[in-house]
Amino acid sequence: xxxxxxxxxxxxxxxxxxxxxxxxxxxxxxxxxxxxxxxxxxxxxxxxxxxxxxxxxxxxxxxxxxxxxxxxxxxxxxxxxxxxxxxxxxxxxxxxxxxxxxxxxxxxxxxxxxxxxxxxxxxxxxxxxxxxxxxxxxxxxxxxxxxxxxxxxxxxxxxxxxxxxxxxxxxxxxxxxxxxxxxxxxxxxxxxxxxxxxxxxxxxxxxxxxxxxxxxxxxxxxxxxxxxxxxxxxxxxxxxxxxxxxxxxxxxxxxxxx
Length: 258
Known about the structure:
alpha/beta, 2 domains
C-alpha cells in the first residue's frame, strides 16, 4: 500500500494536545513544526462552550501556540452548517459564548419567538426554564440541532451532563431527535477541510477516540492517527469494527511526519 502524502493536518485537542490543562509532551513541538513548515492545520474540539479566542488563550497558557484562526469548534461548524441551510436565519440557542458568538458571526438572529432552529450546545448551567422553552418551540415547529452528541463532560468533581444527555431529555419530551453537527459526524471534518482549503486525500486526522475522531476521519476519507495519550488504550483498538491508519504512542511521534 502506497503511503499517502500529508499536506494538511487536523488534530483533536483534549487527550492529544492537552490533558487537564497541561500540555502533553511533544504537543507544542508538533504545532511549532506545522507552523514552521507552513502546513495548513486546524485544532478540532466538540466543546461548544468556549470561543476560538478563549481556547487559543487556554492553549497558550499550556505553552502551545495555536492561532485563533486555527481552532475549529463544534459551535463554529454548527453555525456554518446553519448559514448554508437557512442564510440569515433565526435560532433559540441554549449554550454559552462559544455558540452564541458563532451564530451571530454567521448572520443569525437569536430569538425566543418562532425561530427557524432550536440549537442546543454545552453549558455548565443548563436551565430547566430554557429546556422547557426549547421543548415548546420544537413542538411548535422549530427544527432541532445540537452541536455534539457527547453525553458527559469532565469537571474537577467528576462527570457533568453534556449536550447529548440534555438532547435526550428534549427528544423524550418532543419525539424529535436533533441533527448533530460535531464529531462523529464527518460534516465537522468536511467543514474544517473547507475552512483551510484542504483535500481529504492529502489530510490527516489525529485523535484519541475511536468512536469520534477515528471513525469520523475514516468516513471523511482522511488518513487517521490514533494516539494513546487520551481515551483509548492500545488493547481497545481491536474491539472496534474499523481501524485507524496508524496507532502511535503520542503526538510526539508525529513531529517527524510534518
